[in-house]
Structure formats: structure tokens, C-alpha cells
Amino acid sequence: MTLTTFEIFDITLLAVLIIFISIFLYKNKKNLGKDGILILYRTKWGLKLIDKVGTKYKKTLKVISYISIITGYLLMMAIIYLFGQTVYQYLFNPEIIKNIRAPPIAPLIPYFPKLFGLQDFFPEFYAIYFVISILIVATVHEFAHGIFSRRYGVKIKSTGFAFLKFFPAIFGAFVEQDEKKMTKKTKFEQISILSSGVFANIITAILFVFAILLFFSIAFTPLGVFFDDYSYSIVKVSSIISINNISVNNSSYDKVVELIENKTLNEIKTDNNKYSGIKGFPQDLTLVALYDDAPAINAGLIPGEVITEINGIKIYGKEKLSEELLKYFPGDKITLKIYDGEDIRNHDIILGKNPQNENMPFLGIGFFNQESRGVSGKIYTLISSSFKEPNIYYEPKYGLSKFIYYLIWWVIIINLLVGLMNMLPVGIFDGGKFFYLTVLGITKSEKGAKRIFSTVTYLFLFLLLVMMVFWVLSFIK
Predict the structure, then answer these.
(1) Which partner from 81, 195, 249, 284 sits 20 to 30 angstroms from 145, CA to CA?
(2) Residue 47: which of 204, 203, 152, 174 has the closest Cα?
(3) CATH fold of 226-366
(4) Listed residue (210, 204, 199) closest to 420, CA to CA
(5) How far is CA 74 from CA 80, 81, 109, 187, 379, in A?
(6) Distance CA 447, CA 235 (A)
(7) Has this prediction a pTM greater than 0.85?
């Protein structure tokens, strides 16, 4: 794995952070506690703020409790559904496992997209992103627990940070409650406190969505329009009469495939038209998708390239592209300014005749994926593409535009992930006790609730183990 200059700097910064944390923990070893594989550094930071908010705004927090609990149930249903879908895909769609080499639950560690070959799905996840995102996510999550605990009269003993014993760069915040008082509270009060953390994460994610909208409008500008395919037509295979000047009688799927094998461009003639290549076959093999004999494909324009200007006029969107093209006629020569991802070049093209109207100009490019570019990652588009115009290539205005943009994006994603994962009805998560209290409220039997809770926990762990086995076997086959 080749590292960029920034990645080397980033990893060095991570190493310095680990050394700093290690020295800090060593100097304060008398104030440390242990909880399994975690080292706890207890403080009194934020206790006054937690106490003030939790006791001053009781009516408001009571109303928010209902919203928080509903959010908790919705997140629990969502994560159960997503977990079930993941299990189904691993068991019954093995091709997915072969194509995505990441484990069923990929660890959220720096550089995991590069480590597990997920760069097409996620932007880079630098160590500095990891540290800042986790700090924000953990702080809002735990402070929400603390505020709602004080609202319902549960004492907060301390706040602090928990560090993984063997790798202190992995850390989180915590709020230490008086567990005896917690267990004496009503079921409503307990599940309010339990759901408050994930509710805070969802609210934080929403706030950062507005932040990313604002930042994008300030820090990025459209460079031009990119196309992702050429124009094409669907014709009958039987209508093909020649391929690369080789006559074809009684054309069929097998004959077409044989004649175009290992060739990128092909001259294909039918009874009525000429085409410049084959796109592919629909499910009905009596039909074939052929690229139109258009200026774009014949001139060597490559899908993914960005058209920034037409005869000196800047192109900011597809409407502007169409508007400029309609100023010309078939046979007119135009000069396109093209950005290929590295360099900008001029490209002269003679416009053709539109197949639908011979009096209109025709370039022959296609827009099919309806996505935007300039900031990458397929999963990233779930949040981002909703506010960007399709097929526009955006360029950063400032040197740190992409860096800050992806940082905000990761804060959103990690808040959502923490909100979802914490509501799994499994013992180690907030959702575990949340689920147990819900079952207890329904069954009125502590013994029965514990049995159901234990069964569900072991079921989830068993299914996770099954997925891990299938994942390991995918490397062997």
C-alpha cells in the first residue's frame, strides 16, 4: 500500500498523539481506573453544565424524552432490519462477499477504506478525521446521558475519557452514573436516559448536514459538465448487415460477439443506419444497444471527462450546455475545453445531425448515472448528491476545502453509525438494556425478560459468527 505525503504526515501525527496520551496516562496513573480492556481517566469536567441543564430545563427535557424514546425504537428497528439484510446477503448472495472483501462489520479505524478496498464507497478516513469525529460523537452521546440522568434525579459521579489499553488513540468519553439510583427509577425514566445518547447523535448528524450544505456552497464551485456514456440506440440484431466492413448474413448474437471481440470501437451498419460501437445486449438477445455514429465517440471524447467551455463560453450545468449547443447547426465546428482530471485541453469537434431532428446539432454524449463529482465515494453520495446538481464536476475554491468537507461528512456518518449500532438489542450496547426494559414492561416477568434478552443477544452473536465464517471462506474458495 503506497502512502501519499499527507498520509505519512497524518500517520506521524497519530503516532505523536499516541505517545502524548501514553505519557499523560503514565503521569496520571494514580487517577486511573480499569474496566476490562479500557483505561478510565475520571474528571469533574462538565459536571456543572450537566447539572445546570438537567435540573433547569426539566419540562423541556420531559417532552424531549418522548421523542428520544420513539427515536430509540425507530433506530432499533432500523438496525435489526439492516443486520438481517446483511446476514441474508452473506448467506445467499456469495458474489457480494467476493466483490466486497471487507468483513461483515468493518472496524472503524483510520484508513479502513484503503485497508479493505472500499475506496469506491467511502472517502479517505484519515487518523485526524478519526480523532476529531470520535471526540465529537462520544462527547455529545455521553453528555446527553448525563443531562437526562440529572433530569430524572440520577447522580453523576464523574465524567472522563476511556482509552483502549493497547492502543490509546482509540478512545471515547464516558459519564459515570450512580447505578443503584438508576435501577430504582421507573422504566420510562431509565429508557429515556438510555435513548438520550443515540438521540443526541442523530440530532448532531442533522446539524452537521446543514453545516455541510453551507460549507459546500461556500467552498466549492462548478467547473463544468461531465458525461458518463455516449448516446446509443436499441436495434434488432437481425438488422445488422456488416461489422467493420465484414458482411453479416442472418446476423445473430453469437456472430456479433465473435466479430467485435477485443475491439473497443466498431463500425456497424444496419439496414438503415451506421453506428460506432456496441454498448451491450439487453436480456432479450434478439436486440442490441449500439452507439450512435456521433461526433463525441468518433472524436475520442472519453466518458468521465468534463466539458468546461464551448467556444470560450463557460459551462456550469447541463441546461447551459444544451443552450450553447443549440446556437449551432449540424456541420458547424466548435471548440470544447476538456478537463480529464489532471489537465485541461482544447478539442475541436464538428457537430453532427440529431437523429430525431436533422436540423438540430448533435454531440452524442449521454447522462445516465445522475451523480456529481469532485468529491468521491459512492456511500458519500447518500448524503451529498441530494444537494448537488447531477453531472456537474465541482472544484474546491480553497486548499483545505476537500479536507474540511470530508471531515464534516465523517462526523455525520459516524454519528449515524453510533446511533444505529448502540440500539442493537445486545448486552454491551444501550439498546441491550433498552430492549430488556421494554420486554420487562410487556411481560411483567423479570425472569422471562432476562431469558428473552439473553436469547436475542446470543442469536445476534451467533449470526455475526456465521457471517465471519462465510467471509473467511470467501478467501479460500
Answers:
(1) 81
(2) 174
(3) Pdz3 Domain (2.30.42)
(4) 199
(5) 10, 11, 27, 18, 22
(6) 69
(7) no
> Which one-letter DSSP state was computed for residue 155?
P
Residues 265-285: tens digit of each pLDDT = 678 888 878 888 788 888 788
Percent of the chain with pLDDT over 90: 32
What count of other Cβ atoms lies within 10 Å of the Cβ of residue 373?
A: 20
The span from the CA of 288 to the CA of 290, in Å, is 6
Per DSSP, the three-state class of 194 is: helix
pLDDT of residue 263: 57
Ramachandran angles phi, psi of 359, nearest 5°: -85, -5
- The whole-number pLDDT of residue 328 equals 93
Say what the alpha-carbon torsion angle 444, 421, 378, 218 is, to the nearest 10 degrees: 110
Measured between its terminal Cα atoms, the distance across the chain in Å is: 24
Give the integer Cα–Cα distance in Å for 121 and 89.
18
Domain map (residue ranges) of the chain: 5-220+403-476, 226-366
Question: What is the four-CA torsion angle of 344, 347, 352, 355, rounded to 10 degrees?
Answer: -20
User: What Rg do the C-alpha atoms of the chain give, in angstroms?
Assistant: 29
* The residue type at 147: I
pLDDT tens digits for 418-432?
999 999 998 878 999
